[in-house]
Amino acid sequence: MSQPIIEVEAVEYVYPGGDAETPALAGIDLTIAQGEYLAVIGPNGSGKTTLLKHFNALLIPTAGRVLVDGYPTAVEENLPLIRTCCGMIFQNPDNQLVATTVAEDVAFGLENMALAPAEIRRRVAESLRTLSLEHLADHPPHLLSGGEKQRVAIAGILAMRPRCLLMDEPTAMLDPVARVEVLDTVRQLHREQGITVIHVTHFPEEAARARRVLVMDRGKVVRDGPPQAVLTDLEMLHSLGLQGPVAAELAFALREDGFNPPPGIIHGRELVEFLCSSGPKH
Question: What is the full per-residue pLDDT of the chain (282 aa) written as tens digits?
Fold first, then answer.
């Protein structure tokens, strides 16, 4: 197991003016290793986004502590290091696009880091190339498609060389094609560059792409494990008002009808392989 990049110790959080009897986070203990791909799911109001915002010190615990790469988030002088380490992608990319061209937008964070102009140009070119956005460098961001805008937002974060990418439902406002485009990009960054990914999502098929799934409810972690175990526990998911991946739901229905698909099916291709192998032999 790699060294931890994020450590959460007995964290509680109460929003200003909130009820201390029902905290947004209630006693969270969690360790995330460098290079992990973690999905966080749960019903609305379960604390998913609140937890994510603790990982780059947008929120500071009411009790307990969060360490990012060993640095406590509650210490103000640590914030530049923490926010360089953990870059955040929000649900609406328009909230992160601030410049008049794509290249200028990618450069924005680097300029705030006071890097030399030559280094900024080099990193912008590298980031645009990695995200296959070179042809859009001089385009106004507001004229791009939803998927392109989100990739520009990711490019801007990537140029700052984060070790961890925090994503708060980054595909919620995208069409299905753009969703796949963005998720494939993130998966490639995780695989090729070893970037830690923490992905809050309400799409079970997106959670199935992760290596580890965290389920939250009422500010607590109620399940933590590999997707094949967590996302096929339909009784638990349904009790929280959640659905499993379509393949897992169909596999369950097939078992109810007397078929015997293998356990742990969460991807459509796995279900297709079972159905093909179970069909009539000619």
Answer: 579 999 999 999 999 998 888 999 999 999 999 999 999 999 999 999 999 999 999 999 999 999 999 999 999 999 999 999 999 998 888 888 889 999 999 999 899 888 899 999 999 999 999 888 999 999 999 999 988 999 999 999 989 989 999 999 998 888 888 888 889 989 988 999 899 999 999 999 999 999 999 999 999 999 999 999 999 999 999 999 999 999 999 999 999 888 889 999 999 989 998 888 876 554
**H or E, element range at 53:** helix 48-54
Q: Is residue 253 part of a domain?
A: no
187 by Cβ neighbours in 10 Å (0-12 / 13-18 / 19+) ranks as middle
Phi/psi of residue 25, nearest 5 degrees: -125, 135
CATH of the domain at 76: 3.40.50.300
User: For residue 56, what are the domain limits?
Assistant: 4-244
- What is the model's pTM? 0.89
168 - beta bridge partners?
A: 200
Number of domains in the chain: 1
Question: Residue 280 falls within a domain, yes or no?
Answer: no
Measured CA to CA in angstroms, residue 282 lies from 15, 264, 270, 272 at distances of: 64, 28, 22, 18
